[in-house]
């Protein structure tokens, strides 16, 4: 036994993670279902090859790792994880630790955590794509704190480092907490991407801007408040040229987005928790609608495309609208995390989560520094009420309003930005309109209501009570 740790599953993410671990000085034993893949992986590992132990069988993998063992699973979420757990069980003892690093549904992680497995188990969210896994992902761990602490030296070594040098790897909470936080990360990822796509739509269809100019706009924004990985890559994407047509790459890509489901899980879970995340829900809806190309084409044939052209909209206004949308979306995401923390008894550390997201992950951005600081100050407060963000919203919401209005008037669909604005207006309305809902419920179902004057007359005079 010479390896410090083991890894199962040498797909894109598993290979990148294994190389990262080896590079940080930890000898690693690896196994893949197809033995040939395992050996090719080592052969291609160049100067890291002497820290990689390719194993042909699970028994050999287990034997190669110093006990108590730690083995990272990087296999497709779902049944493959259960199958792998079952296959490993005969070889492992109660002190050995299996770490599921895939994009598991946190309910599955909860189930596995509670299943009385014959070894220790952690569920770990890993973000940053292939590049992140190879050179520094963000890592969100869930399970027993002591198990996390055992592998923390490896995980913090391979993780991305924030500007202040802090590793973006942390224990989030018990059981499925790590995978839950990763799911919310992905929900926010969907929303950030969708809001950028909506603004791209205004630049392209509303202002008639060519892709290379759009690239310039995104590049400019990446120097300011919006500085983030997703804005950066959007600039690169917009600038890219299709080698086939010689035109903008974006113009030859079908407008139909895929999804593996993590954003949907977040939306579904938010409904279960009764916590509003309308920007994320709108982003999931938009992906679903994007898949219905034929139906959209039929809609356009019947109703026409709408005027689309927008007059007098500056890129500064769009930038401000995106800043507002982003703050609102993150406020919702953190609100969901707070709701889950209470509902699941997890004591999630809001500021620690924002800190882990500062680097390495897909949603990394300059703004997360300030969010981490605001959440450290008061984790229970809605982010929109943190003084710095409240001031930013005061400054940027008028632009969001202008953009959403322009979209509404000109037939440009802005589901996520509109959802953000509607939520903001909901959250700044002390006396809303749910009195009407309560009256209706009481009218048809004698559900009762509370009175503003506190009197104990919980039914209306509509003769139903
Ligand atoms: C990350 C990403 C990643 C996710 C892809 C695909 O944080 O690195 O969230 O884990 O799998 O982004 O997600 P969809 O297929 O659902 O878009």
Automatic annotation (TrEMBL):
InterPro entries: 6-PGluconate_DH-like_C_sf, 6PGD_dom2, 6PGDH_C, 6PGDH_Gnd/GntZ, 6PGDH_NADP-bd, 6PGdom_BS, NAD(P)-bd_dom_sf, Pgluconate_DH
Keyword rRNA processing: no
Protein name per its UniProtKB record: 6-phosphogluconate dehydrogenase, decarboxylating
Keywords: Gluconate utilization, NADP, Oxidoreductase, Pentose shunt
Function of the protein: Catalyzes the oxidative decarboxylation of 6-phosphogluconate to ribulose 5-phosphate and CO(2), with concomitant reduction of NADP to NADPH.
Signal peptide span: none
Pathway: Carbohydrate degradation; pentose phosphate pathway; D-ribulose 5-phosphate from D-glucose 6-phosphate (oxidative stage): step 3/3
Alphabetized Pfam families for the sequence: 6PGD, NAD_binding_2
SUPFAM superfamilies attached to this UniProt entry: 6-phosphogluconate dehydrogenase C-terminal domain-like (SSF48179), NAD(P)-binding Rossmann-fold domains (SSF51735)
């Amino acid at each position: 036994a010479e390896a410090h740790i083991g890894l199962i599953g040498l797909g894109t993410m598993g290979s990148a993670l294994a190389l990262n671990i080896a590079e940080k000085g930890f000898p690693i034993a690896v196994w893949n279902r197809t033995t040939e893949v395992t050996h090719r992986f080592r052969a291609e590992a160049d100067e890291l090859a002497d820290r990689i132990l390719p194993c042909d069988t699970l028994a050999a993998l287990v034997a190669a790792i110093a006990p108590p063992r730690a083995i990272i699973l990087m296999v497709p979420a779902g049944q493959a994880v259960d199958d792998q757990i079952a296959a490993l069980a005969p070889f492992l003892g109660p002190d050995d630790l299996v770490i599921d690093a895939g994009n598991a549904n946190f309910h599955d992680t909860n189930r596995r955590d509670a299943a009385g497995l014959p070894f220790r188990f952690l569920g770990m969210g890993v973000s940053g794509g292939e590049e992140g896994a190879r050179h520094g992902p963000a890592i969100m761990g869930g399970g027993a704190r002591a198990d996390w602490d055992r592998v923390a030296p490896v995980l913090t070594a391979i993780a991305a480092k924030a500007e202040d040098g802090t590793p973006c790897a942390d224990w989030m909470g018990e059981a499925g907490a790590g995978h839950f936080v990763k799911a919310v990360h992905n929900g926010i990822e969907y929303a950030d991407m969708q809001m950028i796509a909506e603004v791209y739509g205004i630049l392209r269809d509303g202002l008639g801007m060519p892709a290379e100019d759009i690239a310039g706009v995104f590049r400019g924004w990446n120097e300011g408040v919006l500085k983030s990985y997703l804005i950066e890559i959007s600039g690169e994407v917009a600038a890219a040229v299709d080698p086939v047509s010689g035109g903008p790459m974006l113009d030859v890509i079908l407008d139909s987005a895929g999804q593996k489901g993590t954003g949907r899980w977040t939306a579904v879970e938010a409904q279960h928790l009764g916590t509003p995340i309308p920007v994320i829900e709108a982003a999931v809806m938009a992906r679903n609608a994007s898949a219905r190309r034929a139906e959209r084409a039929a809609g356009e044939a019947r109703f026409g495309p709408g005027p689309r052209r927008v007059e007098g909209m500056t890129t500064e206004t769009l930038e401000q609208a995106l800043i507002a949308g982003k703050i609102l979306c993150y406020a919702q995401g953190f609100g969901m995390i707070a709701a889950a923390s209470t509902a699941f008894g997890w004591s999630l550390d809001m500021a620690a989560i924002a800190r882990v997201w500062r680097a390495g992950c897909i949603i990394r951005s300059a703004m997360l520094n300030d969010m981490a600081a605001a959440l450290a100050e008061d984790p229970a407060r809605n982010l929109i009420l943190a003084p710095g963000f409240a001031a930013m919203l005061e400054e940027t919401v008028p632009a969001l309003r202008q953009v959403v209005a322009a979209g509404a008037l000109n037939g440009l669909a802005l589901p996520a930005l509109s959802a953000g604005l509607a939520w903001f207006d909901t959250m700044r309305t002390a006396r809303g309109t749910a009195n009407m809902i309560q009256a209706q419920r009481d009218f048809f179902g004698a559900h009762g209501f509370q009175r503003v004057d506190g009197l104990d007359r919980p039914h209306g005079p509509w003769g139903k009570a």
